[in-house]
RNA sequence: GGUUCCGUAGCUCAGCUGGAUAGAGCAGCUGACUUCUAAUCAGCAGGUCGCAGGUUCGAAUCCUGCCGGGAUCACCA
């Protein structure tokens, strides 16, 4: 903000003029004055004490006097201990309001000409989306919106993990037990339908395994391979993977299927395409409900072989090295990491090889300056390694690769596990939260008069706001606990609370006649409630900048809550339409309009829609 | 074990690029709807900021060590 620079420069000039002391402008610490003290902005004087060999209060007074005399917007100052508080004139604040209200793009930063690709969601096609995906999706979406507002051109993408043994399990189970059912014939959502067969496969495998354990072969294996003191139960638990790979009929069939898939066998490919298309229809429905979309999709089936060319380049440049068995590695020990395998000894690529290749393809496709990966924190190390490798390969965007890492969502009973059926399904959750909005609304009856369609739309907005806000307001890094049995809050620090502040403004704006409102030029001095709002609003642009820099949507959520809180208080304490004077009324209406716009802007960044009534 | 993240009120969380007396919400208690929508507002109560050192005029914030919890350390993805 302009005024902050003016104050900082004023301090710098004052130091030079009064003490003949030179400092860089940036070293002047400036912050908002705390509510308990008079003033708008505060300078901390302590850092100058040593160099000036004087006491903080005296320095504060000297500097304050100088700055007030040399700046028209600054009318007064006071010094408390080492803190120098400045007060700005009512004209300045009225000017701020006028400026903000005339700037329809307030908060948006000018285009910076940079492209950033944000990857989020990235589901597997063998099971439906769950609560964990919701956190990922909301963070990714919101981050994209924030970056756009901060001046970037954003490309939203997801990589769909559509191949591998997992989807083969679903396919096989459907082949064996599906009786030709389809999502249409059973009226089950596509992703749920396919997920059902994934679970079914696991069940059948378990049955097969437990039968095998009591067979001749099973007993023999246990007798010859178990460790001393290892119970049968523990042994077979640990042996599960080996069983799947060596003895399991289902396991072998699934693996055969994967091989056929890789060999591009027509029958398998067709089955695969059919089942995946069911899943995509299901995903699309969920994304739509959540209000998110993507600009570009990448499929693992297209990218899983990528990256081999890079290996050659890397070997030539000496970034990679090969072992005697033909495997390719990179040594990252000097960067505090381990040696990392890039290519298996059989020449096939691993996860990170794909990721290297995919990053390059994306850059070829779009020419990106930055990349953001929204992925859970269990992959922190993976991304650290990936980014380091990209740097060593000399990729131009490598210094601007970011992992927006977030903590898992736990249930009160522990972790969510899809195999144990303890996941909270995304669609179920959305449905539930809308029901909760319905219950809360029924107690109030504000929207009871409206027609059904309009009502449903509002309930949907409220329910989703509650859900989204609850998740986004928590800093991404933190793990969070979610209790599906406890209803999502609609009161207090919540999405509906912010929506309600907006709705109150809309209600007021609906009631007055536009033509009646005059100018607030003659409004002499904004009161404390109006000032509190103004001071928060002017922070909006720098909030966006910080949120974009830190990739932190939670700061937007917290800001919008605070703004709503300040407005609710203002609304309670101050009359708008029955204001004491016409200028006061005009001022409050203008202020309310601006608050509504900023709140709506914030919520849009979080993917939350505002209702006009509730 | 190495690396890394987290630890703030009964619960869920802000605050962390060092600044004034550590803030909200929920839950509990008290009060405010003939008023622009009470999904609101005001108040009470609730804290060794995990522990111990250090740096500093000043530490919840930075550094070191420890304790507790999570993640990760595959020729898996």
Highlighted features:
single chain, 614 residues, alpha/beta, Gyrase A, domain 2, 5-stranded parallel sheet, 4-stranded antiparallel sheet, globular, RNA-binding
List the helices and strands and how they pair.
Blueprint: H1 2-19, E1 30-32, E2 41-44, H2 46-52, H3 56-70, E3 74-80, E4 83-88, H4 90-102, E5 115-119, H5 131-149, E6 153-160, H6 165-177, H7 183-186, H8 190-213, H9 216-225, H10 232-238, H11 240-246, H12 249-262, H13 266-290, E7 296-299, H14 300-303, H15 308-317, E8 321-322, E9 328-331, E10 339-343, H16 351-366, E11 370-376, H17 380-392, E12 401-406, E13 409-411, E14 414-415, H18 426-444, H19 452-472, E15 480-481, H20 495-511, H21 528-537, H22 540-550, H23 553-573, H24 582-605
Parallel strand pairs: 5-6, 5-11, 6-7, 11-12, 13-15
Antiparallel strand pairs: 1-2, 2-4, 3-4, 8-9, 9-10, 13-14
Helix pairs in contact: 1-3, 4-24, 5-22, 6-8, 6-12, 8-13, 11-12, 18-19, 20-23, 20-24, 21-23, 21-24, 22-23, 23-24
The protein binds one RNA strand of 77 nucleotides through helix 2, helix 17, helix 18, strand 15 and helix 20.
Description:
The chain is α/β, with parallel strands linked by helices. Among the domains are: 2-88, 2-Layer Sandwich (Gyrase A, domain 2); 164-262, no CATH class; 308-348, no CATH class. 56% of the residues lie in helices and 11% in strands. It is built from 24 helices and 15 strands. Strands 7-6-5-11-12 form a five-stranded parallel sheet, with helices on both faces. It has a four-stranded antiparallel sheet with strand order 1-2-4-3. β8 (321-322) and β9 form a beta hairpin. α18 (426-444) crosses α19 and α23 (553-573) runs antiparallel to α24. The radius of gyration is 30 Å and the shape is globular. The structure holds one RNA strand of 77 nucleotides.
